[in-house]
Amino acid sequence: xxxxxGRLLIGKSLKTNxxxxxxxxxxxxxxxxxxxxxxxxxxxxxxxxxxLIPVLGIMSYKYMFYSALCIVFLMIxxxxxxxxxIDAYPQGGGSYIVAKDNLGTIxxxxxxxxxxxxxxxxxxxxxxxxxxxxxxxIPVLLPYRVAITLLFIFIIxxxxxxxxxxxxxxxGTPTYLFMVVILIMIFFGIFKVKVLGYVPKPIYKIPPVVSxxxxxxxxxxxxxxxxxxxxxxxxxxxxxxxxxxSQKNAKRVLELLALVVLVIFGGVSYLATLYHAVPNPNxxxxxxxxxxxxxxxxxxxxxxxxxxxxxxxASNTAFAGLPLLLAFIAKDGFAPRQFxxxxxxxxxxxxxxxxxxxxxxxxxxxxxxxxxxxxxYAVGVFISFTLSQAGMFKxxxxxxxxxxxxxxxxxxxxxxxxxxxxxxLGITKFLSGAWVVFVLTPLIVYIMMAIKNHYSEVARxxxxxxxxxxxxxxxxxxxxxxVIVPIDTLNKSFLKALNYARTIxxxxxxxxxxxxxxxxxxxxxxxxxxxxxxxxxxxxxPYRSILGPLVKFIKSEEYAAGPKDTVTVVLAxxxxxxxxxxxxxxxxxxxxRTMLLxxxxxxxxxxxxxxxxx
Amino acid sequence: xxxxxGRLLIGKSLKTNxxxxxxxxxxxxxxxxxxxxxxxxxxxxxxxxxxLIPVLGIMSYKYMFYSALCIVFLMIxxxxxxxxxIDAYPQGGGSYIVAKDNLGTIxxxxxxxxxxxxxxxxxxxxxxxxxxxxxxxIPVLLPYRVAITLLFIFIIxxxxxxxxxxxxxxxGTPTYLFMVVILIMIFFGIFKVKVLGYVPKPIYKIPPVVSxxxxxxxxxxxxxxxxxxxxxxxxxxxxxxxxxxSQKNAKRVLELLALVVLVIFGGVSYLATLYHAVPNPNxxxxxxxxxxxxxxxxxxxxxxxxxxxxxxxASNTAFAGLPLLLAFIAKDGFAPRQFxxxxxxxxxxxxxxxxxxxxxxxxxxxxxxxxxxxxxYAVGVFISFTLSQAGMFKxxxxxxxxxxxxxxxxxxxxxxxxxxxxxxLGITKFLSGAWVVFVLTPLIVYIMMAIKNHYSEVARxxxxxxxxxxxxxxxxxxxxxxVIVPIDTLNKSFLKALNYARTIxxxxxxxxxxxxxxxxxxxxxxxxxxxxxxxxxxxxxPYRSILGPLVKFIKSEEYAAGPKDTVTVVLAxxxxxxxxxxxxxxxxxxxxRTMLLxxxxxxxxxxxxxxxxx
Lengths: 614, 614
What we know:
Chains A, B: It comes from Clostridium lapidicellarium. Chains A, B: Its main location: membrane. Chains A, B: Keywords: Membrane, Transmembrane, Transmembrane helix. Chains A, B: The chain crosses the membrane at residues 63-82, 103-126, 132-158, 170-193, 213-235, 256-278, 298-326, 347-366, 372-392, 404-427, 433-451. Chains A, B: Pfam families: AA_permease_2 (PF13520). The structure is a homodimer. By secondary structure, chain A is an alpha/beta fold. Chain A folds into two domains: 26-450, Amino acid/polyamine transporter I (Up-down Bundle), CATH 1.20.1740.10; 476-611, Rossmann fold (3-Layer(aba) Sandwich), CATH 3.40.50.620. Helix content of chain A is 64%, strand content 6%. Chain A has 21 helices and five strands. In chain A, strands 3-2-1-4-5 form a five-stranded parallel sheet, sandwiched between helices. In chain A, strand 1, helix 18 (492-504) and strand 2 (508-514) form a beta-alpha-beta unit. In chain A, helix 2 runs parallel beside helix 11, helix 2 (26-39) crosses helix 13 and helix 8 runs parallel beside helix 11 (246-275). The two termini of chain A are 14 Å apart. The interface between A and B is large, with 85 and 84 residues. Strand 5 of chain A pairs antiparallel with strand 5 (602-611) of chain B, so a sheet runs across the interface.
């Protein structure tokens, strides 16, 4: 039943060699990898104005324009840098790989950890913001805020489990719709003022000018808008997800992404200046612009609806990025290796599911009030940008390949600028939450190192030299095999286990742990009646543990097996076919097996007895 | 580490024969089993006034007195009835046992189900109410309401896991403290008005009289106060938890319980009349009385504090009652039999833990706003009262033992009155939530029946007739044993499994499922180098499943084992000693074993290979 439901939700399994057809082309790759960046226009401009308006009043628009310019410049620089990364790392070159390859393991892990935090927060923040947008339109849904957000995360998780290609089409369409709607708004908005001569009537009053611009204020405004850049990493990390020629396709998507963000972010910022939008808790800046441009027409509502959808879609970039990043880290042994395993539909399903679960947990913990998680993730993203650029810079210096000076210059400047941005973000946002990144990142790096140590140690202990030969073929009839068959009740399941034991040994002991005198007396009476010529050992267990007396017996003098002999324990296990049946049976066999296996020189045989029910 | 933490929290294991010393006497049994009933004075009187005051104004106090009288009468009647039940069922006679024994299985299960619902709700409601009382004193804690409630449930769960006796002492003391404080308040309150001639100044204005009393209004008031009776069931259900003479002790506790509730409930109701307390969301009725009686002295705060504590302690009655009830039901096969198993400290730990978890879930689901769960549980409790009384009535009619007419009369009147109350509760509270009980109870009864059917079917299929003999001793050297050893990587763990296989058979096949061509090529090359004279079979798995190809191979013509031969699969299992190590390894062996066991004629041998780490 569970597997049927699973198939219904995520579709039938795909063969490994169908992987090729599960990749995306430029047209569908763009919306998936850019939705995070594009969605930020829905709030990045507004965030800048929130900082400026209370101090600068009408002057704000001038400096908003400058901030936007700085961010666009940063965007172009980062794009150019990442183009070079894609050239250098055709197998996928996220910050993790580039930093690890060029700067060493620790910087690589730092980049990986900060990106992981960033991606998880992206999902929690963007789905919460999307839900908030929907609720501000339909206030009656307010009590179900958390449930709605979780539903969105669930849908996106399922969509991604269904496979890259399918999710790209389903989740990509709304992104394109948003782009088209916003572009229409930009063009018509400019046309209305510049050509039709419309005089904007601001919906909210602009507060008076309190003071002039300061460097600190400008930096705070700039850093508030920097969230616009978070999605870029996903492209160069995701090269393996592109159709051939994957490198070329990835570069094309990167360029288009920069172009789209540039046009939309620039356009909306310009419109905000033109129409004097003033941030207000009751109406977003984009909504104010749309209302002035389109009035109460259907286009206004279309802007509102697509904005809500794009906010939710933004989390899809994280779903495209994080599982792949975790797979890279896991292949290197720094994360549980299950993250490197492809699921039924060839996506890295463990990464997808983990991302869905952890972000859902965050939403529940913060009851959907995740807007104050926002400062957290920009810092992490810029730390990883810096490490990636610095890594590339070092690479050019080392390789000195053709055109290395120009390339080194681009990445070097990129490193400096993104580092400066990371510092600005770290300082301006430290108290409002960025400190968490500085606590979590080292912790995650430490865990990753511990995981790597564990895997190395396991590999070392498992390594088999050719000199260590298997046992020679033995005369089976001369083997002394020690077999113990525990008994609780004399029934068919036990009999099946006993019969199996008989086929492998003629040195069997039946073992009974007595926790209830009456039950033991009944068993012994029946055993007597049954009259089989095999010794039975009964041990009392005052603390009602079954395992303790069994282990003690195996280790005791009383039992003839030496410490080097392998003891075989044959367990009868009831198998019930009803899916809810297992919770009705003490999983004693399971527990005994789990604990016995921690002893050396033991082999546990499980003999199933199946109960059929209709 | 986990087991150390467990020992720290719940203490060391107790021996089965220490059970006797884990029981409670009258002095400690009273607070545990009465806290639920006693705590209801903190709100039962208030609930009555909430119904009456808006309509009757100053007239309310008169009818509150009548309502209280009716409830006290009901209380006495139920107490007398249960005294008889304790006499008749010395092994413990909750409604479940009495109804099942005298009325049949379905009435018994209905009683059991409705009590189960009642107990679970008691915990959720009373801990939430206690937290609310604390928060109204310290409003800064408001954002942590859910967390605080969960913490209380956790503490009470742990306390009960530590054992009956210990929890009785820890949780019983505050109950006695509350009793003493409230008794002082009652005596001094009456003394102050009647002797010192104090003229009460009501804190809130009594609203004007709107209309006269109606039957419906009176019944609504009466039913709102009926929650005072919910704890009585726990005493007669809990006879086995009392020290010898357990029957006599239980009866003594029942009588004392009735006395205490009578005095406190009657006293507080009288004080409410005397001091004209008016229910108000900002100050409870008890608080208003205490403030007038004691002024702002320390006694006022003591009343407040002990009231908050007793509300939380009320849930302890459920922790004393439900696990025992579930154990009775489980022994009859209508609930998972794990509920009938005693834990480390001899309590029915599975029931205790389940109660803690389910009530925590309710608190989380309702975000601590559980006051509207209150109407739900009174109905269920009175349904079970009715069934229990009716059962006793039928019993006397049937047995016709000494004094049966008097006894039948008491139980018969009890059945009628509690039935009438259940009907009143069901009707007046139907829309505000009691309907849930009418949906849930049949559902739970249905599940209980399904569980019983399952256990019966399992027992039937497992039953071993003496005629069905075990296999005779066989010549081991002539056995044809089919053994398959799956291989993933050629390492020491695999070698250990192979060596074990060699000791039980000379008919071994190594089986490899290929999900990655490169890895398979590497394995085959190494296997070749290793040069062991055992055949290896390689199967491709396009869908990356390990299990599918293995099962297919076992069933195929290619494999020589006939459908009646037992096939032995020897699995190498890695055991890591670090507690977090297991999440880092694909639990493939575990999964394969689980699925293979669903085939008939198979035996799965698990050979552990232990990795030691410091």
